């Protein structure tokens, strides 16, 4: 905890910000804690909750009121709950759960909003043309109408809250139920939801009082609000960094001079270096957004250089290599054919596809259990009953079936593994996968097959070892990650690979814009901020060492920006 640490520049800066926050809490003033990466945002949020519980707890209890603490992930909800001992006076939930807690008691108004929504017209027509008298409920977030019940989606919850907030009766309910509303990671709030808060509740006589905690330079998701300004909102900058070495914090401060951070340990020097590929004369990737990007072999050579010359350890526990897209990661880690087959990344990264779920949640854990001689777990994971062989020949047959499965994982295709499971009485293919196999076999329609058929057929030709490589990545057993996925995390060392690869990001152009902000076209301001924020998130993850590798050639103007941030002697050309 901050109060248990010896005085340091970071601690002094953090205390100053938290004292300003406490003053706002005492005076009933809305406030915004702008906390750069590593500043201790969550600590400030917890301190605000503890302050309110200590000073307002009895009054809240008498009035059957609660403090609302809005989060954006279930993980954050659990962390905050634990740190306040799950105090019942604090409603710690996601924004969707918070909004539903408010709108669910306004059933007639909710039905009216749904009835007028274009997104619901087809379903309402199919249900008889009206939802009068239907109960509106919210559970799994899928839209449907059944048995006089309207089940709304995640998006509907936010839309309903935004539609009801202009109503005075609804505003009174919000203030009466939650006189204090604290928002974690405020910059990730849905844009329309934050606008509704600003217009209808910020500065409203009678409350509620708002406290926003976050960092608009870490807004990296679409349709979120980012920076928030309002006449009734006091901005408090928290100029501390309890995470990173002096070298890394120095770079962050030169990237963002308007929110300078003080370091926690002035003796932790670390390193921060940017490497260029401008003199690279070998192969470069061609086509699309990869045009003129340094080849895969360059990255491999560069990692070897960092290990040999700078003492980097690329074990997953010590280092993360941040790349932009899953397609790039897939090429580096050996599952590029799987990544190329799926239209939606979550289908294979989050195991949402039936095949991926079967391999990731059944086959691979089962084979690991068998290797550890947990035979009961093997059969449970494979969905089969534990066999009771009556003869030695049957025992040998069972062992042969399992040994064959284990061998095919490294020597065969995904189709080989599926066929082996289907053709063996001691193993079982899930019904959903078996049906897709049958559908893929018999489909003879005109035109291109549906996606589910193309995926089923395409997977059969891919080496099964790509499944193993993919799961190694998903389980965190490799040093690789995307820049988007590590927000909120920290690592000892971070290598950030910056090339093209996606039309939404061009860091070379961004660096040129930084050198001359006035030259950023009006219609490119969003692109400027998108590149800035993702680069800032990536550069602020390391505790000790930061290295940037630009695999695209940079202009002289872009290089000058890097030299301003890192220092002229810390921007180097690397030739394998």
Output the keywords.
globular, 576 residues
Q: State the distance separating the first and last CA atoms.
A: 44 Å
**Chain oligomer state:** single chain
Quick check: average pLDDT? 91
Main structural class: alpha/beta
Strand order of the largest sheet: 3-2-7-8-1-9
Per DSSP E runs of 2 or more residues, the count of β-strands stands at 19
Whole-angstrom Rg:
28 Å
Beta-strand proportion: 5-15%
Shape verdict: globular
> How many strands, what sense, and barrel or not for the largest sheet?
6 strands, parallel
Count of helical segments? 24
Low-confidence residue ranges: 288-292
Helical amount: 40-55%
Annotate the secondary structure layout.
Elements: H1 9-27, E1 31-35, H2 41-62, E2 67-71, H3 74-83, E3 90-94, H4 95-103, H5 107-115, H6 121-126, E4 135-137, E5 144-146, E6 149-151, H7 154-164, H8 168-177, E7 180-184, H9 191-200, E8 209-214, E9 234-238, E10 240-241, H10 246-255, E11 262-263, E12 271-276, E13 284-285, E14 293-294, H11 296-310, E15 319-323, H12 326-333, H13 336-341, H14 345-349, H15 354-371, H16 375-382, H17 392-411, H18 414-422, H19 431-442, H20 451-460, H21 465-474, E16 480-482, E17 491-498, H22 507-515, H23 525-539, E18 542-550, H24 556-566, E19 571-573
Parallel strand pairs: 1-8, 1-9, 2-3, 2-7, 4-6, 7-8, 10-11, 12-18, 12-19, 15-16, 15-17, 17-18
Antiparallel strand pairs: 5-6, 13-14
